C-alpha cells in the first residue's frame, strides 16, 4: 500500500508503537547473542552497572536528538543534526561516522547469523580459525539480499514485517533467560559465580570501559532509529521521545536479566578452568552454554533466533542507513542524485543500493563479528557527539547539559583500544581532507575553521591518556563550537558559499 498524499504532504504511516518496535528490534539484534559474555569479560560483577551507565548515556543522547527533531522533523535527522545547526562542512565527520557506522552494523548482523550457524552445524565450512570462509561470506551476502528485499517497498512493508518479528524476538530472550535461570537453580546456588574471588580486579572503571569495548553502545545503538524515521512518524515531537525512552527501557530490562542468567548459568568448574571471567572465550556464548547444560530445546530455539534477531536488526538498519544517506545528499554532503525519492514507496532506492553494495564490500573484507563491532562502536560514539553539539547551538540554554553529555561521550571514545581509535581517526581525517579540498575555492580560512577543530580534538583524545585533561579539552571544545559567534559564522558561510544555503 503506497503512502498517501494529504494536503500536499505525504501521510505519516508510523505510529508510536511501530517506532518503539523499530528501536527495540535493533537493540535486540546480534548484540544480545554476544554482549553478555563480552561484558562479563570486561567488567565481571560490575557488568550490571555497565549496562545501566550505557542506558543513561544513550538516553541523554536521545534527549538531545529529540530537541533537534522539535526544530527539524526531517528525514535522517540523526545524520543531519550538525548540518542543520551549523553547516554541511562542519557536520561532515558526524554524518559520515553515523551513516558508515550503521552500514557496517548491517554487515555485522549477517556475520552474527553465519557465526551461530557455523557453531550449530559443528563444521569449519562457514568459519575457520575464527574467520569467515569463502562459503561463509557467500551465505552472509545472501542474507544481505534478504535485507534488501524487505526494504525495497518502503516503510509500510518494513513496519508490517517488523511488528510481527519483534514479538517473536521479544519472546526468545525471555524464554532463554527463564530456561537458564531454572536450569541453574536446579544445579545449585545461582549466586555462586558472583561470589568468587576472581572478580577482585574489576571496578567502576571496568564498567565504564565496557560501554564501548564490550559492545554495549553497539547493542543500544537502535535507540536512534526512530529519529532516522522522524519524517515518517506520526506526531514526531511527541512520539519520537517516547519511542526512544520505551525502546531503551525494554532493551535495558532484557539485557540486565540476560546478563545475570548468563553469568549464573556457567558451571563454576568451567569458570575456574579458564581463570575467571577474563578468560571466558565461547564462540557462540548462549548456544555453547545451552549445549554444556544439555538444554536441547534451548539449543534449537537459539539457533532459530540467531537467524531472526540479527536479520530483523539488519534489514531495519539498512532502512535507517538509506534514509541517512538520502539526508546527507539533500544536505549537499553526498552527490545529489542519491536524494531522489521513489514517489510511490517514499524511499531513495539509489541510496539503498549504494548502502547494500558498501555492506557487501565490508562483509567480504571483514573477518569476524567482534573485530568489526569495536570499530563500529567508535563510529557510533563519534556520531552521537553531534546531538549535544546541535542541541547547544539551537538551544543555548541547554549548553550545560550538552557539555556533560559531550564530555561523557569523549571519555567513552578514549576507552577504545589504540588500533581501533587510530583507524577511526585516520578514516575521518582522510574524509575531511578530501571533502575540504573539493570546497577550497569557497575560502581556505573558513574551511580550516570548520574542519580543523574537530580533527585536533579527536587526535587529542588519542594521544592524551590523562582522563581529567581529556575532560577539560572536551568541555572547552564544546563551548567553543556551540558559542553564538562560531555558530553564526557557520550559518553565514552556508548562506554565502553553499549552493542551497542552510540544509
From TrEMBL:
Membrane topology: Multi-pass membrane protein
InterPro entries, sorted: AA/rel_permease1 (IPR002293), AA_Transporter_AGT (IPR052962)
Keyword Hydrolase appears in the UniProt entry: no
One protein family per Pfam: AA_permease_2
Coiled-coil regions listed: none
Record keywords, A-Z: Membrane, Transmembrane, Transmembrane helix
Primary site of residence: membrane
Compartments (UniProt record): Membrane
Transmembrane segments: 16-34, 46-66, 87-107, 134-155, 167-187, 207-230, 242-266, 286-304, 422-440, 447-480
GO cellular component: membrane
Name of the featured protein: Aspartate-proton symporter
Lineage: Bacteria, Pseudomonadati, Pseudomonadota, Gammaproteobacteria, Cellvibrionales
Amino acid at each position: 500500500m503506497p503512502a498517501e498524499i494529504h494536503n500536499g504532504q505525504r501521510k505519516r504511516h508510523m505510529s508510536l508503537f511501530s517506532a518503539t518496535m523499530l528501536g527495540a528490534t535493533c537493540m535486540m539484534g546480534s548484540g544480545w547473542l554476544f554482549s553478555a559474555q563480552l561484558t562479563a569479560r570486561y567488567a565481571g560483577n560490575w557488568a550490571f552497572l555497565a549496562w545501566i551507565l550505557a542506558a543513561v548515556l544513550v538516553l541523554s543522547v536521545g534527549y538531545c536528538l529529540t530537541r533537534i527533531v522539535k526544530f527539524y522533523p526531517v528525514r535522517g535527522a540523526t545524520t543531519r543534526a550538525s548540518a542543520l545547526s551549523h553547516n554541511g562542512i562542519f557536520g561532515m565527520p558526524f554524518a559520515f561516522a553515523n551513516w558508515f557506522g550503521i552500514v557496517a552494523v548491517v554487515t555485522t548482523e549477517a556475520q552474527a547469523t553465519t557465526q551461530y550457524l557455523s557453531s550449530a552445524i559443528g563444521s569449519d565450512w562457514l568459519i575457520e580459525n575464527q574467520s569467515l570462509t569463502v562459503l561463509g561470506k557467500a551465505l552472509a551476502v545472501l542474507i544481505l539480499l534478504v535485507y534488501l528485499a524487505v526494504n525495497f517497498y518502503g516503510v509500510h512493508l518494513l513496519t508490517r514485517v517488523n511488528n510481527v518479528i519483534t514479538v517473536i524476538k521479544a519472546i526468545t530472550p525471555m524464554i532463554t533467560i527463564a530456561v537458564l535461570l531454572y536450569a541453574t537453580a536446579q544445579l545449585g546456588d545461582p549466586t555462586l559465580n558472583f561470589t568468587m574471588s576472581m572478580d577482585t580486579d574489576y571496578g567502576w572503571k571496568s564498567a565504564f570501559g565496557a560501554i564501548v569495548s564490550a559492545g554495549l553502545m553497539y547493542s543500544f545503538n537502535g535507540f536512534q532509529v526512530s529519529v532516522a524515521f522522524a519524517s515518517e512518524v506520526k506526531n514526531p515531537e511527541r512520539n519520537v521521545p517516547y519511542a526512544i525512552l520505551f525502546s531503551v527501557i525494554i532493551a535495558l530490562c532484557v539485557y540486565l536479566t540476560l546478563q545475570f542468567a548468563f553469568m549464573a548459568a556457567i558451571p563454576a568448574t568451567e569458570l575456574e578452568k579458564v581463570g575467571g571471567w577474563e578468560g571466558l572465550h565461547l564462540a557462540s556464548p548462549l548456544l555453547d552454554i545451552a549445549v554444556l547444560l544439555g538444554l536441547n530445546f534451548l539449543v534449537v530455539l537459539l539457533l532459530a533466533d540467531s537467524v531472526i534477531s540479527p536479520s530483523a536488526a539488519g534489514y531495519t538498519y539498512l532502512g535507517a542507513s538509506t534514509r541517512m544517506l538520502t539526508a546527507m545528499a539533500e544536505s549537499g554532503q553526498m552527490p545529489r542524485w542519491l536524494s531522489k525519492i521513489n514517489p510511490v514507496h517514499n524511499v531513495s532506492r539509489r541510496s539503498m543500493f549504494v548502502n547494500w553494495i558498501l555492506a557487501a564490500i565490508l562483509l567480504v573484507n571483514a573477518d569476524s563479528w567482534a573485530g568489526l563491532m569495536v570499530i563500529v562502536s567508535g563510529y557510533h560514539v563519534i556520531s552521537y557527539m553531534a546531538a549535544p553539539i546541535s542541541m547547544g547551538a539551537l538551544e543555548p540554554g541547554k549548553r550545560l547539559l550538552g557539555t556533560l553529555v559531550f564530555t561523557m561521550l569523549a571519555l567513552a571514545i578514549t576507552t577504545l583500544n589504540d588500533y581501533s581509535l587510530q583507524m577511526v581517526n585516520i578514516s575521518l581525517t582522510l574524509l575531511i581532507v578530501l571533502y575540504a579540498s573539493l570546497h577550497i575555492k569557497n575560502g581556505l580560512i573558513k574551511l580550516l575553521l570548520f574542519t580543523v577543530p574537530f580533527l585536533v580534538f579527536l587526535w587529542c583524545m588519542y594521544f592524551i591518556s590523562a582522563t581529567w585533561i581529556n575532560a577539560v579539552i572536551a568541555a572547552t571544545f564544546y563551548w567553543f563550537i556551540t558559542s553564538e559567534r562560531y555558530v553564526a559564522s557557520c550559518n553565514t558561510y552556508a548562506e554565502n558559499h553553499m549552493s542551497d544555503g542552510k540544509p
